[in-house]
Hints:
This protein has 118 residues and is of the alpha/beta class. The strands form 2 sheets. The protein has a 3-stranded parallel β-sheet, with helices on one face. A two-stranded antiparallel ribbon has the order 4-5. It starts with 7 loop residues before the first helix and ends with a helix. It has one domain (32-115). The chain is 29% helix and 17% strand.
Amino acid sequence: MTRRACSASTKTKFSASVNAITSCPECSNLFSMSNGGGFIGTLACDPIGSTLFKGVAAHSGAFYTDIGGPSNGCSPARIIPILEIHGAVDKTVKYEGGRGDGGPQPAISDWLDWWAPT
């Protein structure tokens, strides 16, 4: 398993963020960019997070926690529609993956393949 362990304070912040998002009854879809896009990926992988939204979209998602592919501990409760928008010449979150500011990142094409229904 290649997911990084979260500290207690990170888990508290994560829970607070999810509570703030889900307290909005008209918020059935979630959209975010860069690190927030990575957060969307983490939510979509979570058994509870995957039930909170009808669909998610990331713009230039930094998927640091998803470097291990399908064997990364991802266990969504349901298939969730995902849209990922990414520029091929993004210098911060590289489309081809590699080392980012927060650690290793998967290639975006690989990340999308992992989510594709089989």
